[in-house]
Every structure is written in C-alpha cells, then in structure tokens.
Amino acid sequence: MLDKTTTFNLLYDFYRPLLKESQRTFMELYYVEDWSLGEIAEHYSISRQAVHDRIKRVEKALIAFESALRLVEKFEQRKKLVRELKQKLRTGTDISQIEQLLDRLLEID
Amino acid sequence: MLDKTTTFNLLYDFYRPLLKESQRTFMELYYVEDWSLGEIAEHYSISRQAVHDRIKRVEKALIAFESALRLVEKFEQRKKLVRELKQKLRTGTDISQIEQLLDRLLEID
C-alpha cells in the first residue's frame, strides 16, 4: 500500500497534462516541493482553508482520471510483467512462452 | 499514415472514458457503427449541421487528449519495441540487450 504523498505524486506524474495551470501550481508546491498548507496560504495571501479546498479538489480530479483511464494501474501491471519476463529470460524459458508474455504486455492498454 | 476513420477509432478507444455520455453516443454511431450524418440527424430529429458540429467538437477533444497524454503514440512505440524484442529473441541476441529493451519499454510512460 502506497502512502498518500507517494500515491498523489504518482497520479500527478501521469495526469499533470490534464490539469489547469493553477491546479498544477498548488499540487507542485504541496506534493512535489513539500510546502505546508500554511506556507502556500501565506505566499498567495489566501486562507489556509482555501488552499486545503483547492488541493482536495485536485486530488478528487486525479482520482477520477485514474478511475477512468487507469494509467497508474496499467503501468504497475507492465512493471510486474517485465520483472517476470526478466526472470524467465534468466532461467532459459523457451521463446514461445516469452513471446506470450510480450503479447500480454501489449494487451495492457 | 492512418486514414481519418482509423485514427478517430483509435483515439476513441483510448479516450472514451474521458468523454461525456452524449459525446460517446455520437462517436459510437458515426465512427464505430458507420452511420451517416444524415442517418444520425434523422434518428435524433436534429439538423445534419448540428450532428456535424457535435462530432467535430468531439474530434477536437480527442485530439487535445492525445496531445496532452499521447497514449496512442506510446502504444505504437510499445508495439514497435515488442516487435523488435521478438526478432532479437529469435536471432538469439544476448540477454543483457533484451533486458535493456525491456527497460526502454517501461520508460515509455
């Protein structure tokens, strides 16, 4: 199970292009640069609550994108399959089995 | 170079979850079921021009999604890399080279 910061960093990595400029700024500061809500609030002269609400909204949007497109989930599936492939290569599994795994890799889309 | 129908079918495949229900219905009929603009217009009792405009708007949205996320482009890159991998497997390339290609496959994300 990933912690919240890692999860949202990952989601942000995949879906950043779908966010608006202002949404990106807040995510960048809070999740990537690790600013506190208070620091962001002070920097933009808005309330801590306003910063909190905006970040919550972006988090919701990121979760909605993932539940629609599942890019992070598919990426994790591909990573697992590649690990499996490497292991099979090293143990000298026959080519047809490796080719089947490669085909499965393409089906994750 | 893919023709227009194939291109939009492919884009629709990847980005359908991001479209609204009504946008999906029109894309489904026009691109997947191959209805004409006139047939869709008649079925929904709206003008041919209105159908045309709606489909154009969805096409624009699909192009915008692809230019943001490049899912179709990445899928094509992965397909090409898997073809390359299969060829190398058959010609007995050494494992370290194949592993490098597998790592490149994961970097396409």
Automatic annotation (TrEMBL), chains A, B:
SUPFAM superfamilies: Sigma3 and sigma4 domains of RNA polymerase sigma factors (SSF88659). It comes from the Bacteria. InterPro entries: RNA_pol_sigma_r3/r4-like, UPF0122, UPF0122_fam_protein, WH-like_DNA-bd_sf. Pfam families: UPF0122. PANTHER family: UPF0122 PROTEIN CBO2450/CLC_2298 (PTHR40083), UPF0122 PROTEIN YLXM (PTHR40083:SF1). Might take part in the signal recognition particle (SRP) pathway. This is inferred from the conservation of its genetic proximity to ftsY/ffh. May be a regulatory protein. Belongs to the UPF0122 family. HAMAP family: UPF0122. NCBIfam families: YlxM (NF045758). This is UPF0122 protein B0W44_07095. It comes from Novibacillus thermophilus.
